[in-house]
Every structure is written in structure tokens, then in C-alpha cells.
């Protein structure tokens, strides 16, 4: 029987001494994503025209990012660790001013909670997404 290999966000890199796991595959300085905790959520929402909050490694977050990039938007993607999920969710609820539940991926456009994957896809299909992104300053054309 084969043993499962646990998921790791780090990749093995060749070094002079063999393989090393010291360097992660993505960092906040080289890509447009970062790890977020509850202390900087409000600042990120207010500073970015479009921001996507998702769990670390979430495939639906990746789908939203690719859709927005296909439209010409360069969204900020913030990954939420499992240990910070409750605190970040509570902060997102506070910022949005809504009661209830925030599900990941949570997309903020123009500083307001836009919705999740379903809302982004529905507005894209109906043709309403591009005007909303233009109004928020995420698209210039």
C-alpha cells in the first residue's frame, strides 16, 4: 500500500548540498498575493480596487483570480491561514457591514463586499462585471 504525501506549499530547490525546502514557491514580494491576518484586513480592503480573500491553496480563489486577470484586472489575492480564519472572517463581516456569513473566496470591489465566486461568475456572464470594475477604478479601458 502506498503512503500519501502531505501537501506542502514549499518546493524542493537544487542546491550544492542536495535538495532544500527553505525557499517557498511564492512570496508576497514577488507575486500579487500574501498571507493575511485579522490586523491588516481593513487596510488591504481600502488600499486595493479589487481584492480576493481565500483559504490557502483554494482552487476557487485561483479561478476568480484568473477570471479577473482575463478581463485585465490585477487583483490582490490574500490567503488566509486556518488558524486566522475565524478572526479574518469576523473582520470581513465588520468591514462589509453585513450580518451573516462570509464565504471564501470573498471578493471586495471598491472597498465593498462584492460576493463570492457565484456572484463574480453571474455578473460576468450577464455582462455587468466590467462596468462595475470600471466604476471601482480596477479597469481603465
Defining key terms:
141 residues; alpha/beta; Glutaredoxin; five-stranded mixed beta sheet; 5 helices; 7 strands; globular
Plain-language structure description:
- Residues 50-113 form the Glutaredoxin domain.
- Belongs to the glutaredoxin family. CC-type subfamily.
- This protein is α/β, with parallel strands linked by helices and 141 residues long.
- It has a single domain (38-136), classed as Glutaredoxin, CATH 3.40.30.
- Helix content is 35%, strand content 21%.
- The protein is built from five helices and seven strands.
- It has helices at 41-47, 59-70, 85-96, 117-126, 129-136, and strands spanning 13-15, 18-20, 33-36, 50-55, 76-80, 106-109, 112-115.
- It has a five-stranded mixed β-sheet with strand order 3-5-4-6-7, with helices on both faces. It has a two-stranded antiparallel sheet with strand order 1-2.
- The longest helix has 12 residues, at 59-70.
- It is globular, with a radius of gyration of 17 Å.
- It starts with 12 loop residues before the first strand and ends in a 5-residue tail after the last helix.
- Residues 8-15 and 18-31 have low confidence and may be disordered.
Amino acid at each position: 500500500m502506498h503512503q500519501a504525501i502531505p501537501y506542502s506549499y514549499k518546493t524542493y530547490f537544487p542546491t550544492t548540498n542536495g535538495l532544500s525546502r527553505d525557499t517557498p514557491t511564492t512570496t508576497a514580494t514577488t507575486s500579487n498575493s500574501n498571507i493575511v491576518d485579522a490586523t491588516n484586513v481593513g487596510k488591504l480592503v481600502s488600499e486595493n480596487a479589487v481584492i480576493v480573500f481565500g483559504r490557502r491553496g483554494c482552487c476557487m480563489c485561483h479561478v476568480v483570480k484568473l477570471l479577473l486577470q482575463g478581463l485585465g484586472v490585477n487583483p490582490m489575492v490574500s490567503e488566509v491561514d486556518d488558524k486566522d480564519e475565524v478572526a479574518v472572517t469576523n473582520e470581513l463581516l465588520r468591514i462589509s457591514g453585513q450580518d451573516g456569513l462570509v464565504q471564501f473566496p470573498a471578493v471586495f470591489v471598491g472597498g465593498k463586499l462584492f460576493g463570492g465566486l457565484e456572484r463574480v461568475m453571474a455578473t460576468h456572464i450577464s455582462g455587468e462585471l466590467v462596468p462595475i470594475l470600471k466604476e471601482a477604478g480596477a479597469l481603465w479601458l
